[in-house]
Amino acid sequence: MTKLFTNIKELIQIRDASIQKVSGKEMGVLPTLKNAFLLIENGLIKDFGLMQKMPTFTSDETIDCAGKMILPTWCDSHTHIVFAGNREQEFVDRINGLSYEEIANNGGGILNSAKKLQATSEADLYTQSAKRLEEVIALGTGAIEIKSGYGLTLDAELKMLRVIKKLKENYNIPIKATFLGAHAIPSEFKNNKEGYINLIIDEMLPKIAAENLADFVDAFCEVGYFSVDDTDRILTAAKKYHLIPKVHVNQFNSIGGIAISTKHKALSVDHLEVLTDEDLTDLKASETMPVALPSCSFFLGIPYTSVRKIIAANLPLALATDYNPGSTPSGNMNFVVATACIKMKMTPEEAINAATINGAFAMNVSNEVGSITKGKLANFIITKEIPSYGFIPYSFGSNLIDEIYINGNKF
Ligand SMILES: N=CN[C@@H](CCC(=O)O)C(=O)O
Ligand SMILES: [Zn+2]
Predict the structure, then answer these.
(1) What are the extents of the domains in the chain?
(2) What is Dmax (Cα atoms) for the chain?
(3) Which of 119, 189, 230, 344 gives 20 to 30 Å between its CA and that of 399?
(4) Ligand nearest to the CA of 300
(5) Which ipTM value was assigned to this complex?
(6) Mind listing the pLDDT tens digit of every residue in the chain (411 residues)?
(7) What is the rounded CA–CA span in Å between residue 329 and residue 95?
(8) Which ligand is nearest to the CA of 84?
C-alpha cells in the first residue's frame, strides 16, 4: 500500500537516519524542503524530495497538500496519563492560596491520586487512560512514554503497568513504560521510608521484571520525597533488571539528583526548573538528555527551566508535557511548543527539534520516530494552510492540525 503526498508547502524536520539528537547551536537549525513530496509504503516513509525532482510513482492514493505543511508527530517523552479521576479540587485550593507543597503535606497531591487509583478497577483505569491517549494522538502526539507511580502498593503499581501494557497492545504508536514506584512515600510508610524502598526493591522490581512490564525506572528525587541516596539505591537495584533510568530531578530543589542520574547513565533527567552551574557541568559530562516541562511551570506558577543556559552549554534539550492530574492536567504538545517559545525564549526551530527528534531520543525510539527519515514510521502531522512553521507556536491556542497520520493511516 503506497500513498503519495504532493505539493507540500514545507516538509519539516528531514533528517538522515544517523542523526539521533541535536545539541547547542544545532538546535537552531530545522532542515526542511519547500514544495515537496512524501511517499509512504506499508506504514513507513519510503521517499521524499522536491516536487520538481519527483520521479514517476505509481501509488495507491495521492493526497494534494497545497498550502499545507507536514512535520513528524510530537514525541512526548514524559507523561503520567494513567491516572484515576482528577484533582480539580486542589486546583481550586491553589487558586484560593494554598501551595502545591501545602496540599501535598495535607494528604493531597500524589497520595490523593494513589487513593483514587487504588479504588479504581483495572478495566475502568484502562478506559480513562485510553481516552487520554486518543486525545493526545489527535493533538499530534505519535510516540509517548507513560509512568506508573500513582499506585504505591505492589498491586496498584502492577495494575498501572498492566494498563500501560494493554495500551501498547491496542494502540499502534511507540509507547514506553516507566516504573515510578518511588513517586511518593505512601501514608502506611509515613515513618518508615526505608520499608517502602525495600518493598520497591525486594517485591515490586522483581515482579515487574518477571512480567516484563517496564522499559525504564524513575524516582522523584526531591526534598520530602526520595533523597539522592534513596535514588541511588533504587537505580542500582533496577540495573539488575536492565531498567534504564529517566529521573524526576530539580523540580523544586537541586539536591544532587542530576549527578546521581548521570552516574547511572540515565537516558533523561526531567523537570530542571532549578538548575545550578554544577548541575550543568554534570550534564555536560554525560549523554543524558535534559527534559523541560513548561506546561508544569505554567500550571503551578513555578520557574521555567533555564533552557537558554542549557543550550548555551552546547547541550541538547527535549520538551514533554508531564500530563498528570496534579501539576499538569494537559497533554497538548502544541501548547508545550508554544509555551517554550513564549516563556522560555526558544526559537520555533529549537522548540520543534526539542519536541520531535530530541523527544524521541529521551525515550529510546529514535530509530522509529522523531524525524522525516526514510525507513521511519509514517507518523506525521499535516497542518492547515499556514504561512510558516513559526505559526505553530505563534498562534498558541489555535488548532492548526488538519490531519494526523499514524503508520500511514489517518487517525
Ligand atoms: N513531580 C512529580 N510528579 C509529577 C506530579 C505529580 C502530581 O502532582 O500528581 C510531576 O512530574 O509534576
Ligand atoms: Zn512527571
Answers:
(1) 2-72+372-410, 75-361
(2) 71
(3) 344
(4) 1
(5) 0.98
(6) 999 999 999 999 999 999 999 999 999 999 999 999 999 999 999 999 999 999 999 999 999 999 999 999 999 999 999 999 999 999 999 999 999 999 998 889 999 999 999 999 999 999 999 999 999 999 999 999 999 999 999 999 999 999 999 999 999 999 999 999 999 999 999 999 999 999 999 999 999 999 999 999 999 999 999 999 999 999 999 999 999 999 999 999 999 999 999 999 999 999 999 999 999 999 999 999 999 999 999 999 999 999 999 999 999 999 999 999 999 999 999 999 999 999 999 999 999 999 999 999 999 999 999 999 999 999 999 999 999 999 999 999 999 999 999 999 999
(7) 15
(8) 1
Closest to 363 (Cα-Cα) out of 267, 283, 247: 267
Asked if residues 158 and 208 have their Cβ atoms less than 8 Å apart, the reply is yes
What class does CATH assign to 2-72+372-410?
mainly beta
Pairing of strands 74-76, 68-72: unpaired
Whole-number Å distance between alpha carbons of 193 and 177:
25
> What burial class does residue 363 get, using C-beta atoms within 10 Å of its C-beta: 0-12 exposed, 13-18 middle, 19+ buried?
buried
Distance in Å, CA 300 to ligand 1 centroid? 11
Which residue has its alpha carbon closest to ligand 1 atom 2?
220
**Choices 1.10.10.10, 3.40.50.620, 3.40.50.10490, 3.20.20.140: CATH for 75-361:** 3.20.20.140
Q: Which residues fall in the annotated binding site?
A: 78, 80, 87, 150, 183, 248, 251, 322, 324, 326-327
